[in-house]
Amino acid sequence: MFFKQCDKLTPINQANDEDNKTFTDFLRHVCKGVLDGLGAFLNRLGIRPNVITMAGLLGNIAGGVLVASGQLMWGGIIAMITAPLDALDGTMARLRNESSRYGSFVDSVSDRYSEFALYAGLLVYFIQTGTWQDALLVFLASMGSILVSYIRAKAESLNYLAKIGLFTRVERYFVLIPGLIFGFPRISLWILSILNNFTALQRIFYVRKQAKTNGEIIRNREE
Q1: Rounded-to-integer distance, Cα 183 and Cα 185, Å
Q2: Which candidate in 57, 64, 212, 223 could, as Cys together with 117 as Cys, close a disulfide (CB 3.0–4.6 Å)?
Q3: Which of 133, 136, 43 is nearest to 96 (CA)?
Q4: Where is 174: in which H helix or E strand?
């Protein structure tokens, strides 16, 4: 099912896209052998990729509920266990030759809900135990996460490239989950609040650079 598959790029964009490999791409390359083996094993058991996708989503929702109830460590552990499922469902779909644009769409949507479940848990937790500054940190971190994903989606719908930036979903989880498990969520949120929004700005200026190179900004001003 939900294998992330990008729309076809022009040859020029393909060349540029190859130069914009993210840390997520690096991890997928390094872990490809393990993911392929595990994905093939689960396929032989008759488990479908959409089951893995739903397990990941439900696991993150459960983690968010635990965080909201004050059990940050267990919420973080559940999130850590279910996080790799995001890559596994795509591997299973690819091995089944069941990749599709709709699958990519649903996979991306489930990723957003999974991430927001943890932010929602932290928001409830800080409303009960923290200050308005803590709640504001959750808002800023989640806002940056939304923008990072939205900017790329919107840019690519307009035939720009936006697959760049310091903090993608994997990096965000590498910061958020340890903060939950080891009890320093505020530090994680400070880092996420700053670097998520920094990544969003990176993508905005990258798209602007492409528009300027194409002469679109000048034409719009003259119109």
Answers
A1: 6
A2: 64
A3: 43
A4: helix 169-181
In this structure, the number of other CB atoms found within 10 A of the CB of residue 198 comes to: 14
Does a structural domain hold residue 28? yes
Residue 131 has pLDDT above 60, yes or no: yes
CATH code, domain with 37:
1.20.120.1760
| Residue 84 identity (one-letter amino acid) | P
216 vs 125: CA distance, rounded Å: 46
Confidence of residue 16 (pLDDT cuts 50, 70, 90): low
For residue 5, being part of any structural domain is answered with no
Decide if 172 contacts 145 (C-beta within 8 A). Answer: yes
Q: Which domain holds residue 204?
A: 16-210
pTM to 2 decimals? 0.85
Which tokens belong to 219?
């034409």
Structural domains of the chain, count? 1
Q: How far apart are CA 13 and CA 220, in angstroms?
A: 23
Distance, in Å, from the CA atom of 148 to the CA atom of 131, rounded to the nearest integer, reads 26
Cβ neighbours, 10 Å, residue 90: 25
89 occurs within a structural domain: yes
The pair of structure tokens assigned to 80 is 């850590």
Instruction: Please check whether residue 2 is in contact with residue 107, taking contact to mean a CB–CB distance below 8 angstroms.
Output: yes
| Residue 78: both structure tokens together | 């559940």
81 within some domain: yes
**Hunting for tokens 């760049």 — which residue is that?**
164
